[in-house]
């Protein structure tokens, strides 16, 4: 891995986006969100995704100039049209609106139709938590996991993010509804390793830890089998019905054509109740209880979701953000 | 199984609650919620739970007269105190408040502290959907699952409910964060059967389908391993911090003393956007896509969450609600 100073990474991505027709402030913000994702250690969804993002600008699925527009509103809920703009800029704008609604009403709900891949979902959880809000958001995806009882991809892995603000480090859960992504299965396969737990079915319909058997059957597992399948279905339903957007089953199967997604952004403002000190104490006590739980492995205390982020962020800001040298050359040539 | 007419079941439970000191309208409603749960085929959380509910009235954890009281409110969010009243009556009242808030603001959020076991969580999903609302709610529980990385129960199985209204049958997901409840593990063990998928770790820390090995290690699995563990933690955090209630780690380990729970009730009113026809169409299209998905077993099409409910409800209303004869004798003697 090559370590690139954060500011250099951000400037390089900004320059590319400017060449692709972004306005200056939007190029800067979009580049920043990509660079921050890698800075925070979510390597799969930051710089590594940038070439695919550029490809989707070039194939016409991402409109660099399109900004989200308000389509309907009532009290504390809003419906926005994404107009196929850059997914991370659209998502950021919609969580911002949810936060503004929550300041006014205690809670805010924004449904977003016709948007694009939001890259790292956790970004919008951190955004809400930085504003002192509980943040909840999710997106649908193209069909990439079989529904429980089916042998073909029929539901999305529909990542969901839940964030709770905390002075010494927000708690941020960012999880897709598949047990392992296809990218992860391919990594295990390349390393010749078995998965640590069952990750799908083989072609005989038996649960298996063999990544090659799952890649052959195309039957990755939803988390919790029938449970994650149900959760994925409900998340897709709520996103599509409240945004009047496209549901998973209509999204096709080509990742480079995965455009027009439906998303939901929720912010809750617990401070509106005027009890922020006690709320903060409750969260810290839960974190302490997890750290005190009897660990399965010596010297590996239980972690809360997002616990590694601040340490990785500090390390990557101090030493430079790790980027694969070949990927970096590919990006500089975009 | 003995089949008991629904009205007879409801009257018998009402009579017992009246003897235990419930006011007449509260006895009727509480009995109805128990009877409806069994009527709907959720046998584990209806009449079967009634003896334990009575035991918790008798041991002082459930106060039959206590009604929830509003503790704080701001815009579309409210905080309620459950005052250790009957869990199902408290939960019903709080989802009702969330629905009222959603009618006014498009969305409503109610946090409830110091309540009791809500019995079937799905009840409050059906309640929201019957009112034309998307309903989302969850509860914390005592620690009954090890957090990921721990060997001892340290997080709750924190059931979560998500409901979407639909004219020809609501879609209602009601799922706990453990892959199998301890009750389910005991049933498999009694029948001498292995679980269909891994349900926990054995005492060597290996994933296993053997229910006895899991009952011996006390290490049941959260759904999706690390993912469900994270989800359980976040649900507990939000419930406790917004209600200022008790978090899982403070709830002890005795089910008969599992009192003072924290819960969250959310209602979203998509009709506030004035597009209910298109929303309904989107949901029906998703249901159709699931029914058309290639099935793993011939003649077993994919089902949406809650799909069996209306058929079971009709059958149990027509033929009588199935109740174990020994349980029924036990209840009549309460």
Strand order of the largest sheet of chain A: 2-3-4-12-5-8-9
Query: From the alpha-carbon coordinates, what is the Rg of chain A to the nearest angstrom?
Result: 20 Å
Task: Please tell me the overall pLDDT of chain A.
Answer: 96
Which oligomerization state do the chains in this entry correspond to?
homodimer
CATH class assignment of the domain at 179-221 in chain A: Alpha Beta
Structural class of chain A: alpha+beta
Strand-residue proportion of chain A:
15-25%
Shape of chain A: globular
Which CATH architecture of the domain at 179-221 in chain A is right?
A: 2-Layer Sandwich
**CATH fold category name of the domain at 179-221 in chain A:** Wheat Germ Agglutinin (Isolectin 2), domain 1
Q: Describe the sheet with the most strands of chain A.
A: 7 strands, mixed
What's the helix-strand series of chain A?
Answer: EHHHEEHEHEEEEEHEEHHEHHEH
State the fourth-level CATH superfamily of the domain at 179-221 in chain A: Hypothetical oxidoreductase yiak, domain 3
DSSP strand count of chain A? 13
Largest interface, and how many residues on either side? A-B, 79 and 79 residues
Helicity level of chain A: 40-55%
Given as residue ranges, the uncertain stretches of chain A (5+ residues, pLDDT < 50) are none
Number of helices of chain A: 11
- Report the span from N to C terminus of chain A: 20 Å
